[in-house]
Amino acid sequence: MPDLLLGIDVGTSGARAMVFTGDRRELGSARAPLATSHPLPGHAEQDADAIWETVRSLVAAALTGAGCAPDDLASVGVTTQRSSVVIWDRATGEPVASMVLWNDLRGMVRAAELQAAGHPVMGIAAAAKLETVLDTVPDGRSRADEGDLAWGTLDSYLVHRLSGGLHITDRSCAWSAAYLDFAEPTRWNEPLIEHQGLPLGFFPSLCDTTGHIGTTTIGAIGAEVPIGAVVADQQAGMFAHDAVDAGWKATYGTSGVLMVATGDTPDLRSGLVPMVLAGWGDRTSFAAEGMVRSAGEMLRWAVAEGMADSMEALTALAGQAVDSGGVGVRPSLHGMGTPYNDSTVGLAVRGRTDDTTPAQMARAILEGVAFRMCEIVDLTVAIHPVDPRAPLPVDGGLTSSDVFCQIQADLLGRPVIRHPQVEATALGAALAGARGVGVEVAGTESTGDLFEPTTTGSEARERLTRWQTQVIDSPDL
Questions:
Q1: 319: which DSSP letter?
Q2: Could you tell me which residues are beta bridge partners of residue 256?
Q3: Helical pair 358-383 and 311-318, crossing angle rounded to 10 deg
Q4: Given this chain, do its domains 4-234 and 292-418+452-472 carry the same CATH topology?
Q5: Distance CA 12, CA 46 (A)
Q6: Distance CA 385, CA 288 (A)
Q7: pLDDT for 175
Q8: First-to-last C-alpha distance (Å) of the chain
Q9: Domain spans of the chain, in order of start
Q10: What DSSP designation does 195 have?
């Protein structure tokens, strides 16, 4: 009987496919970067068809690396970045427009209009952009009405291609798109959809997060394999951390996101954003999250600015400085996330002088990301029952840097524990897929690397206050 698990994880800046055993051991993996175009200021687009072809090649490479065949897979779990907009021809599966990403800002005006009409839609949500994208397609509205076009977030599009025609998404992805009925999250928000003049048949069907969702085609990955999970990327990380029912974690990818499980009740008090973690039948599991919109993205910006040859070189450079030399960085290339939620705020660098060394500048960038996460941790522990001494579990590409993990622990005044599998979202997708088809997986035997703070809690709070005074309490915010 097949017993291997495939996790497909497509983020904003990269995609990966990973093969795991039932005891969470990685057998093979493959990764590729994804290109983003910016045709206008504030716009961010990708080619969904190119992403699909990349995913196919990554799956083949991961299977080769694992020394196994597609028939050896018990399940496929799919996770992607959230709130993208893909519109495709239902008959051919080909996209009819560029995919618009979550961090694209073209929806800000429309979001304000929808909010005024009583629909709580954030500017980065798909619901604020779908109409604009559809209206760029020739005869887009009429083709949608006639059933020729389908739309979905990226997970929906990839499942369509993997399965040869399924048009589905789960609640964790639908909630992020702002199209789910907030009061009854087992269905679409039909008043909003009607307000926008869109046909309900244009939308994917809602499926359970885990279950026997569909089957891949031989043409897609070489075998008919059960698709056992469709889940948004941050929520997939909760599966990897065994935190679906209780717990928290922070993932540092393009953005930095802290998520805490809240059970069957959405968090409407803390200033964090209520999210659907997963859904099965009539049961919906909630979480709350806070976002640092620019985390790993800050390192890519620094590399593009010539501060280092690579992200790895930048974190190594930061390790050569004992402090930032008075430099403060506000990491806000695409506005400020939690708790500010202001997309108009730009990047800020304060205190840089002719004497600032490259190492100090690199450290200031990492500290900026870490300070922003400290603000979100403070919001979380003020409301949620998190042990004041409990380590913050972390994962994501940026956490492969020991320097960054130590900076985060020091600025929190709290231990940080790095997941044994840094790419935890891919593992979470694989584990969720196993759950969907009834394959038992072993619990983790390793707790990961622990980074103890060299500061006290009071010292950490003082440093956060100084940084906020320098880069947050400034005239442009």
A1: T
A2: 252, 292
A3: 90
A4: yes
A5: 9
A6: 13
A7: 96
A8: 58
A9: 4-234, 292-418+452-472
A10: H
Strands (E), 34-156: 45-46, 73-80, 86-89, 99-100, 149-152
DSSP secondary structure of 107-139 = THHHHHHHHHTT----TTSGGGTHHHHHTTSTT
Q: What is the mean pLDDT, run by run of 10 residues, along the chain of 477 residues?
A: 90 95 94 96 96 98 97 97 96 97 94 96 95 97 98 98 98 96 94 98 98 97 98 96 94 95 91 95 96 94 96 96 96 92 91 96 98 96 86 96 98 96 94 95 78 93 96 69
Give the pLDDT of residue 343: 83
DSSP symbol at 257? E
Instruction: Check residue 351 and give left, alpha or beta (phi > 0: left; psi -120 to 50: alpha).
Output: left
**CA 50 to chain CA mean position, Å:** 20
Instruction: Specify the amino acid at residue 121.
Output: V
Give the containing element (helix H, strand E) for 371: helix 358-383
Residue 80 Cα to chain centre, angstroms: 7
Architecture of the domain spanning 292-418+452-472: 2-Layer Sandwich (3.30)
Q: Which CATH architecture has domain 4-234?
A: 2-Layer Sandwich (3.30)
Beta-ladder partners of 308: none
Q: For strand 205-207 and strand 168-170, is the pairing parallel, antiparallel, or unpaired?
A: parallel
CB atoms within 10 A of CB 376: 24
Strands of 293-386 (E only): list them. 328-330, 348-350
CA distance 36 to 46: 5
Structure tokens at 267: 């968090």
Residues 230, 207: Cα–Cα separation, whole Å: 8
**Residue 379 pLDDT:** 93
Q: CA nearest 8: which of 109, 75, 76, 83?
A: 76
pTM score, two decimals? 0.92
Torsion 192-196-198-202 (CA) sign: negative
Place of tokens 């005074």: 469
Element holding 318 (H helix, E strand):
helix 311-318
For residues 163 and 218, give the distance between their C-alpha atoms in angstroms, rounded to a whole number. Answer: 9
Alpha-carbon distance of 137 to 127, in angstroms, equals 17
Q: State the CB neighbour count (10 A cutoff) for residue 244.
A: 22
